[in-house]
Amino acid sequence: MPALNPPPDHEKLSAPEKDTPTFSPDNVSVIYVLGGPGAGKGTQCANLVRDYGFKHLSAGDLLRAEQDRPDSQFGNMIKEYIRDGKIVPMEVTVQLLENAMTEDINSGKEGQKSRFLIDGFPRKMDQALRFESAVCPSKFTLFFDCPEDVMQERLINRGKTSGRSDDNAESIKKRFRTFVETSMPVVDHFEKEGKVVKVSAVKGPDEIYEEVKGRMGERGFEMR
Known about the structure:
Layout: E1 28-35, H1 41-52, E2 55-58, H2 59-68, H3 75-83, H4 90-106, E3 114-119, H5 125-134, E4 140-145, H6 148-162, H7 169-192, E5 196-200, H8 205-218
Parallel strand pairs: 1-3, 1-4, 2-3, 4-5
């Protein structure tokens, strides 16, 4: 398939280059949530939303919503990238996240600091660097560490009832390989900066959450 032409200048979704991020980490707390497919990110994000007052943002959900929005200027572009198995240009993903954060902050309580869990992001280093410089520096990355064989067993079991076409052995191996090749360098980068909280995701969800709560407390986050 020929390469997609970029949208005209007036249609570009990305914000102009900025000298400072849109949001200050003094007022907005961002935690990235990473882990391989089947590591249990969704379950733990739901716990943190319930107990700590986070807003859960999924880059994948935002992209799917944008591609289905009737008046979207970028829907067809996003559809083509996803259909071809390519990662959507990072400017688009980062801007959608910024838009969602802005909407949530504007509708929030006066004087209350906003908290965001960004699930499955950053998938690549360019996304990480762009978001940190243009939107908001993250507090840390919550990384659910889980061996491939455990994740595969979970996903195959999930596939029996989920109806998801990618919950099969071949797709799972591809997804795990993609995660290792593209997302692990992001984890390694932030780990060198002391900004990774690594949690073993082998045990049951309740035991894992107990560890998560302890690690959140160590980083200064209390329940709301």
